[in-house]
Here is the input.
Amino acid sequence: MNIQKPNHSASPVTASEARQSFTRTTRCWALALAFASALPALAADAELDALNLESAPEVKPEATRGTKLFVEGALGSASQRYAPDSRNIGRASVDFSYSGRLAPGLRAVLSDRLDYFDPDLAGADDTVNSLREAYLSWQPEAGNTVLELGRINLRYGPAYGYNPTDFFKDGSLRVLTTADPFALRENRLGTAMLRGQYLWNGGALSLALSPKLEDNPSTDGWSLDLGATNNRDRYLLALSSQFSPRVSSQAFVYQEEGRSATLGLNMTALLSDAATAHMEFTRGSEPSLFSRTFEANPEEITRNRFVGGATYTTLGKLSLTAEYQYNGFALDENGWNSLGSVPAQLAYLDKALNLQELASRHAFLIYASQQSFILKDLNLTAYLQTNLDDNSRLAWLELRHHWPSFDLTFQWQQNIGNASSEFGVLPDRRVLQVLGSYYF
Amino acid sequence: MKLIFSLLFSLLLGPCTAWAAPSADEILAASDAIRNPGKPFSVTVTLTEFQAGKQVDNSTLTSYSRTQQPSGQFASLIRFELPARDTGKLMLKNGNDLWFYDPVAKASVRLSPQQRLLGQASNGDVATVNLAKDYKPTLSGQEEIQDGERQKRTAHKLTLAAVSPDVTYANIEMWVNVENNRPIKARFFSESGRLLKTAYYRRYQPQLGAERPTETVIIDGINPQSVTIMRFSDYMARTIPDTWMQRDFLPRFQPD
Here is the structure.
């Protein structure tokens, strides 16, 4: 059986919008400015009317605590660059996560996703299971120390589109069901590790030890695929500091078997009532992305990775993020042009996607989200990723309407650029999809 | 003789006057203590939203709160329980240190106060924040007002001015029952003087050793037809270490 490899032709199906899912968890109550001119007397009457209202009955949260289950279906179509006909897209998924207390201080976490594709993509299984997490977490009563063992999705990095300090991201995607960079994080595999963390007021120190368990990724759709996430020994030391309520940082030392250590730093800051900023930086030695793709014994080079951005939220509920991204290990414009053929370019892009790396040297992201877009329960999310070397772009937009247990979503993706550019070379030109998600 | 009478009168009434007229600071602190238990606690919050009198939404949260030392900052860790799509998501508020965490995506997102203002999270300020820390109160006299259950009450009217630029509301008007320091009503204003919210504290019941409001009716300042009722139930005293109130704890949080 063949595993479905992530590739750039895969389409956006799931839209789980982790980044601004806080906007959909919180319900709107701030209202249209059109009402600003309401007469004070009417306001007083409305105030008194409000006191007649009664709260909904209390629902004991124990009924749902710890378990989350949803099913999702997707139908769509993708117009193709190298074929005259559009290809159809169909998917059904079951997504389950559980966190339960086994004993005082001892918790079990399980998270799994099953995707069925029809029609299946070329060379891929039609059914792929992703055991994202399965671990035990022990936290003594004082709550300052945590020990965890198992498959853990350990993720760092505050940036939106590219996370240099997210050290356990490579190889973690079994299937690519979305173009939303934040939803990708929901569906990825965790890494088997032993992790300890000590917290104090205003900081934390943690160490993750991840052993090699298998040599290579599995092609079996039902495999645990430890070879994708645990194919070498590695460790990560992370120190978190809260300098003030407005500034926090995380410093890292990361090392893989046979390589020198990579140093990393990320920061977030509150700039004003409406603005936040973030940055990530790493410096380390490893083979270039080109060497990893095409060379059997690649040589190491020392380079930087950097992301810096800011988010501004308007009173009208629109959040806008601008982000500059830099990857010193990626090809520059001349290097990309020297690849020459489309197959070589696609191989390079597939490798970048598999490693969750930025394929171009420089890129820029604009990300926007609007809660209650036209309708109260309608959310708009969109982004534009621009390769600053060849000016090609990926545009993506999602409209998601919420009902109490059901979401209906429309997604649109457009790959824009000339035939030899990063996004212009991709097989899919435009992807349109409709998704339905039911939450139990 | 007149002077002696004056002195005697002052001596006799002086202490009584001080007893009868607590300061604005004392009233506000007593009012805060009624809304917020002095020890770490958790409470279940049922949020019901109305538009023009019609229920349009309903959600449930659990709030874990404590006062941080030595800052005195009131901090809350909020777990979303319902609707199902949001189960397990967390929001941390420790002053202006605001974070949202999605356990599936493992994403911790720093929020600006304006982002928080977009949703129900901002209503937590109205219900649970310790105002005495961030505001300077002035006693503006006594007024007869209608409380959240439409009963006439005599109340101290306090005018609160922010002493920290980091707070969400620049000014607050607050009415506190003269008999027992229970908060009755509050109006929250922006820096420009715009009314943002009106809150009524009602349905007082014994919880964690005191009579506390178990409902807060929040009326939008711009559109009074938009109303949210926060119902508080299942108050429980808890051991909540101060180390919980930081970003790095969010992935470790274990509800019990």
Summary: Confidence is low (pLDDT under 50) at residues 1-18 of chain B. Residues 22-251 of chain B form a domain with the outer membrane lipoprotein receptor (LolB), chain A fold (CATH 2.50.20.10).
